[in-house]
């Protein structure tokens, strides 16, 4: 009589659990400060605990000033990124950390009497006709958590809205996300409109339907594979790197 | 409408591909689903640029349709279901959609007249109501959708389906934070309520046009979680968490059938084995042949109890063997030929069990969709009939228990922690829907764009 | 070298996928073929334009290789064989080919070190000797080919294979005229003689580099006939005629193993089930997952006795789910997971018989490759050991008899006429090779470019 | 116990034999002439019988003159095409007919003291690096059999050889065949070279790897799907139709 799945003792001829093989040892983050209050801020970020960050930030702003608080928040976030890179953290831990970070950041900025200088300005959107926005949202959270100003235009955004937002905000970088073959043509249109208006900046495009081949077929386009790379793109663009150089760095053009 | 209170099968072992307790006949021939036969379902997508004008898009659909039908005849496939998942430009322009459907139906009739090839056409209207942007019950987008259901039904569609969007705003917020409470609220409560409201309209349109109300899928939520979970090397979301989200999907997608849908279900509803266990409707599923559309960890096991076998979606383009539509029609056709051969040989259960063994322990998603487990989850759902919330919660708890209890299912430390954490949070949730909803309405106020009146609150 | 005189199996029913009487170990891990396991074999092809420079082509192959290996790890596939079928620019530039193989082998080693993924690499040199244009035994093209075998063997290839071109000039002329005599001469005699000469060199190179001489395929002739025959609606060549050509292919492809090849065979050699019945070597086959590369009428049945399951070839491009290479690696991986699950469950024969039932009577090509018939054709071949001609003729006659005798196999009037006509012509052919060759050398003088000295006459 | 394939009585749930359903009734060709010798020529062509055509041609050239013979040969070939269109004939019958036709044609042309005027001149080739030539050979046989002069350059043909042959022969049409993605780029090169030299003519390209999308991406390119269409392309080009009009007629450009 034929056996059932319950009778199989060893599944390795059918599949191999590589995830178990490569699972990292759980570990915590490094301390970022010897000061207990600052370390509490960093730990709150690492743990994604808004309450802890909120309390510790209040105390530290008074004791150390808002600039130190901001540095500490960023240092905490750096530890989070390391844990993610090593597979100890998954994305939700990173998002929760970035939520917590934003709580602290808002307070510190208020204490400074306005927005702190951001590392650069990024306009983000999903293509006209496209409502797939989760990839964009993740990228936005990560870029924001790395100290950039994000202008999120949302999804199903008309081309001229994007162009206007770029000009109005003097953006260093614009990003587009599309998950449908029939919406991504909006990117080429935006690129043309920008050219006509004499605006030139890197236009990082990603999303399931979008291919490197397509994105590199119009001017300014730089293809993004994963949301994780968002902060890297923002940093390059803000530092003044041209779209041509960014394309050469990030894309493997054939 | 009453809710399901019992199972369609006495035992999971009675479930098998190609047979359903409540068969459905659709289209030209007709295609009989659930009567000891599995049919292929091809879903083609137009190329970028083809949406530019009505003439171009009609040509594109004409070619894709001809490719699919032609390949069936070349290789001897007995029948084919074609699904057009509307692109934005179709649902927002119901007269385009109508023209596309009328043209395809004409081609299908020609192939039937010339060769005897059976076929049927599914209209899946795009749900353009992005809940954080438009009101679910009063908006231009809703009007377009209803007009497109109507125009494609009149134009030749045999089945009306949708991937409805309710609860997506809350779900998206919650899933990114691994928050099971928000997932239950978004899928189990909000999406179910939206479906109850929307499906009465879809069923009425189908009845009026004398065609079939098909089904709905938790794609917008269940599949988002599943894609985020990804393969063994992904670190976007724990697989155990995605499996718990899928349990809610089953409690939620059931609503379509409670409102009068009869199947075939939507292909991308991975919760369908649970739905079939409860309702007995014929289900459409996608697996190995939908590798063109997305990657997944349960490509064989999902065929165990399928009635209509789909590729999810393939973009039209050239491959060595012809167009991608021809290629995937061919793959689907041979996949179902294997299943139908097993039926004719009397070894269908052997084939089913082989496909189960392939993936039951590869990943938790395949594990919970394994017919035995799917059946148990279904039982948990029908045991809580008085509340969308409670049946979703019951599904989640049962799924967590099944995962935790099976010794063959190996979990990494991170996966097990995610499971335990979610389980603990669910245990602490209120015992009745009212309390739960009050709690969630207050907590998820913070979600940008969340508007309780979209759901009748 | 002696010719095969007996069968590797006592009965056709002993033949099954994943198991071969003479297993072979290749590559990193290693990949063990024929030892109760079926592996997937992905064959990627570079995009147009990527051949422009060495740097570009290296990048293209790097990506394709990484995509394939990465998808295996993401989904838990235990191992993978990668085949690079040389493009013109590789065989004609042996140092490009070497660099491509070295790079891929490094990637495979990295995946093994990091994840434990097993893999092996096949080098299929392009046979650039177009017989009507260049001499088969002395030409620049031959020198390139031998240098490429050498350079890829040194560069990391685990298996050397080829689709050799002998007899193609006469075959092409004959097949377009439905002339069975010319087909027997082109495939059975000329191609066999060319293989005998060429394979001694390939085996020597493999031995010298301590790797595996794989196999050869009658692609240039058997598959040309099969593609011309096409599906039910094609009218380029009768299917029965293509099936008779395939019978010759088996007699011909056997020569590689007589000269020392050990398998894995070449995937596109549809004659391989007959080869396996005779030789017991592990065979590579392509079927449902090679729909990307060509259409065919026997996509399931060809898996009945397979050891290595291939997609034939897929051009690198983007699909919704990732690259085409990722997509087809995924499809292959799940296909073999089904087979391996059946092996582990002890229901491999049930799965085999299901796949036989799918296609045995769909078309004559599937019919003759059904293991029972393949076995009979193999017996006819080994019964005529003294002559390439006679064993080809015996294979054709046996195939014609099997087709004519099986009542379940329905033929149109045109198909039956083609069969009867060919059968009658073969019956009138001489009884010994010398007479046949004399007759053909004189008759096929008229074929443009046919040079008997290419074959040692 | 599980049954085997031998136990299955009805296969229609697994596959349907559409070929049997649509198989045409066998039928012969229509007579093309009341004259028995001319009819013998036509019949010889229809049967693909070189000997019959040869004998009848010899007689008819003497009795009716070579022009009438040529007309009759073509009329016979027209019947062959009809039988092929209806599925009564398969390709080999057509090729054998065209072989027979060529025997008669050669004799008639010899009798006229040289080549008869052809309907037009077609240069054909397989792309540089590509040796897949069976599709081209079939197309060549069909085009020739329809009264056109075919200059077949063979396979693996360098680009400049093609360009030179077009100019030397004042071709009405050039065709290219490629079955490999890495060889078809030769077509675009040929198109460029022709443009540079100021030569413009339809360039019909076909072969397994070649797509309509690709062929219509360079000037002069017209995509060919099946060899059967070869004579139609030759007729259009010889009648002076532009490549743009031919593209519009034969291709469904998106
Ligand atoms: C979930 C989903 C949905 C959800 C969308 C949820 C949401 N809010 O985003 C819902 C259900 C709403 C949906 C609706 C529809 N969908 Co949908 N959907 C999907 C699905 C299954 C997964 C997409 C997903 O969330 N992936 C996970 C996220 C994280 O990936 P991502 O967005 O690509 O982002 C990653 C990268 O691209 C990158 N990235 C993205 N943007 C950016 C930006 C920057 C700056 C950076 C650095 C990186 C980056 O980072 C992320 C990874 O780290 C895909 C399947 C697939 N194969 O893609 C189909 C898919 C995209 N959908 C499809 C279709 C057809 C539809 C509908 C039209 C169906 C219908 N008829 O109803 C509607 C759309 C209606 C409309 N007007 O838009 C098709 C598209 C076909 C096509 N290409 O033309 C797909 C491919 C499914 C399929 N195979 O058929 N869908
Ligand atoms: C038979 C075959 C061969 C034969 C070639 C026989 C010959 N003399 O033509 C042989 C064995 C020699 C061969 C060799 C190779 N092949 Co090969 N071959 C095939 C195969 C299986 C069938 C091709 C065929 O004959 N089809 C039937 C004919 C009639 O079709 P066709 O030529 O396309 O013509 C039709 C139309 O296109 C049209 N047409 C064509 N030309 C014209 C012209 C005009 C004017 C008109 C009107 C119409 C027209 O009419 C015909 C229909 O009516 C294909 C598979 C496939 N999917 O195509 C692979 C294929 C083309 N080969 C392939 C490869 C890789 C090779 C090799 C490189 C393999 C190797 N490494 O050894 C070598 C080539 C070496 C070289 N330098 O070229 C790949 C190409 C991959 C790619 N695109 O890059 C393919 C696609 C197989 C695969 N799926 O991997 N091959």
Description:
- The complex is a heterotetramer, with 2 copies of chain A (254 residues) and 2 copies of chain B (457 residues).
- Chain A is an alpha/beta fold.
- Chain A has helices at residues 18-22, 36-47, 50-64, 66-85, 91-111, 134-145, 159-169, 185-196, 212-215, 230-238, 243-250, and strands at 121-126, 149-152, 173-177, 203-206, 221-223.
- Helices cover 51% and strands 9% of the residues of chain A.
- In chain A, helix 3 runs parallel beside helix 5.
- Chain A is flat.
- The mean pLDDT of chain A is 93.
- Chain B has 457 residues and is of the alpha/beta class.
- Chain B has a 7-stranded parallel sheet.
- The two termini of chain B are 19 Å apart.
- Classes of the chains: A alpha/beta (254), B alpha/beta (457).
- One cobalamin sits between chains A (129-136, 139, 175, 177, 179-182, 204, 206-209, 224, 226-227, 229-230, 233) and B (45, 85-88, 124, 126-128, 163, 165, 172, 219-220, 223-224, 227-228, 293-294, 312-313).
Gist?
The complex is a heterotetramer, with two copies of chain A (254 residues) and two copies of chain B (457 residues). Helices cover 51% and strands 9% of the residues of chain A. With 254 residues, chain A is α/β, with parallel strands linked by helices.
Strand-pairing-aware structural class of chain B: alpha/beta
Order of helices and strands of chain B: EEEEHEHHEHEHHEHHHEEEEEHHHHHHH
Beta-strand proportion of chain B = 5-15%
State the total count of DSSP E strands of chain B. Answer: 13
Number of discrete domains of chain B? 1
Q: From the helix content, strand content and strand pairing of chain A, which structural class follows?
A: alpha/beta
Helix content of chain A: 40-55%
Largest sheet of chain A: 5 strands, parallel
Fourth-tier CATH superfamily name of the largest domain in chain A: Cobalamin-binding domain
- In round numbers, the mean pLDDT of chain B is 97
Number of domains of chain A: 2
Overall mean pLDDT of chain A: 93
Put simply, the count of helices of chain B is 16
| Quaternary structure of the protein | heterotetramer
Q: Let me know the largest β-sheet of chain B.
A: 7 strands, parallel
Widest sheet, order of strands of chain A: 2-1-3-4-5
